[in-house]
């Protein structure tokens, strides 16, 4: 394969993904950044604890892919149910995942020893305890 062929494949894949996810707007760019930061901080935490696992990393990547699939479903519902009038379901789903990923990033930063404001650390701790109660 020539470089121009490879470029064409990546351009085509990017265009199709962008269309499926409702366009490459600021919301999607933020979500991509948060997903990447969460994954990287999670890997750093695993390295620090000497618990890095390829199986766990693969599961993490699959979860991140599923996030984008849900966003794609939200976009399809916006088109189908609302006739493309805005993107409230897509934006709501992205907002949910932004907050979820953001919280996970902050938790990971705390585990890595990055200082966090005391109020923020308290809120993260409370949310983590709530999550543990829901899992039991």
From TrEMBL:
InterPro entries assigned to the protein according to its UniProt record, in alphabetical order: Phage_holin_4_1
Presence of keyword Transmembrane: yes
Transmembrane helix in keyword set: yes
Main localization, broad class: membrane
Bilayer-spanning residue ranges: 28-47, 67-89
Domain of life: Bacteria
Membrane topology: Multi-pass membrane protein
Keywords: Membrane, Transmembrane, Transmembrane helix
Subcellular location: Membrane
Annotated NCBIfam families: holin_tox_secr
Protein name: Phage holin family protein
Species whose genome carries this gene: Acetobacterium wieringae
